Amino acid sequence: MTTRKKLEGNGLWESSRMMLPEHKETIIRRQLEEGRRERPILDPQEMELIESALAESFHEHHQVTVRLFDEYGNTELVGIVVLIHTFRREIKLSITEEEWHWIKIDDIVSAR
Amino acid sequence: MRSPKRIVMLGDCQSFYASVEKAEHPEYKDRPLVVAGDPERRSGIVLAACPLAKEKGITTAERLGEAMAKCPDLVVIKPRMQRYIDVSMLITDIYKRYTDLVEPYSIDEQFLDVTGSMHLYADTPEELAQMIQTHVQAATGVYTRFGIAETKILAKTACDNYAKKNPSGIYTLSKDMLAETLWKLPVNKMFMAGSRMTRHFNVMGLPTIGSVAQTPLAKLKQMMRRKFGKNSDIQAEMYWRIANGIDDSPVRPGTHQVDPKSVGHMMTLPRDYSKLEEIKVVLLELTELVCQRCRGLGFMGHVVTVGCMGADFDRPTGFSRQLKMEDPSNITNQVYQWACRLLEKYWDGLPIRRVGVSLSQLSPDTEYQISLFDTGRERSMALERVTDALKNKYGNSIVIRAVSKTDAGQALDRSAKIGGHYK
């Protein structure tokens, strides 16, 4: 690295360090693990909000934004609820005409 | 109270590999001990020597034979690289109890920025450094030294030149002390100044770090331009800043997470390889490793580089050439075909001791060009997904190519190593 980067930010140290690839991978994996979170326990009121948002989307064909729990970072999906399986506790969220997802209701942490 | 100045530390582990081994082998506590590479494979050099061994005149990187001649009752231990990585991570965890700003710089050196957290534990940086030093020693048996300063460069300089020689293992270098301390040192003690640069500085009439620091930057640039041409301005500024202790780099914990620019592997062979078929075997093995890592990272490479070097490092032979493939790829067999073209075209037939393969111009492998004629791609990808999963679970030696079983193959040996030394 003979560009200006050596003089900017952390360039001097990033260009000169000696790290074994295996060591680096361990550090990155550890950082990922540190970002790992427990599944949140929802407040009954929040659950009611989620239920009514899903029901409204289903009945009125309104778009709803659902946030899904993931250990490493939540994901968000926007779509219309087209099916609700109460016994399996799943909904079918249609994103576009061709794309849809089956979502476990327990994975939903918020719906607006 | 929060300090208005930054407080950066560089923590360095004394004779790291040797200290780890001594902590785990208390029976060798009072004996001179070295960690040395495998004597049969030309890597029989001393990787680390404990203080007792150093007292007998043994130095790092000298040949094991010479070391044993100096000290017949020397304890020689084979390296266990995975263990050293684990202990290094353990030390990172200890540092992280005192600040969340910890940046590993090598396996035995880490930067800590304690500006915001020092007041929680101690009244002075030195007191905190001593606490951490005791903590690490108790938990791992490794003795750490700390350079303390306002910037990373001064912390590193303080550690290398003073803390290591101080009985306490701790040294604080403040900017107003530079004239009486750092600047008096010969220029070869300057960070990033290798033997070549030292020679050049001496020829330029700059024998001490102070003489570099006190040359106005514009003049230093001019002097270096005369020697190295127009592109040396950045080099000049870098050395000038180092000599003056100027460095605004942050201590950045997430710094290792950047996307790689290229993925490569290189290997020193146990003997000279002079047949094309033999070189091709290691070329395939290296290509496999490179592609495997690319797949793991989710990248494809567009440019493949192959390098070969002869045995005599004083009279360098060999080549390093690159080629742009038709499409980006991380499929071993595809990349290997291109790598072979490079080898066949540029190899001059002289014996080879070192081979390297790398992929650059990386792009995410989520999208790729479908080729009309290459219908094997999906099958190769499926196959490699399975072999990668096996290797991740059971180690790289679980599935190998048949050629790796030939005399030339290195895959089995390499799978037992990290950084060229035994795991």
UniProtKB/TrEMBL annotation, chain A:
Pfam family membership, one: YolD
Alphabetical list of InterPro entries matching this protein: YolD
Protein's name according to its UniProt entry: YolD-like family protein
Organism annotation: Paenibacillus solani
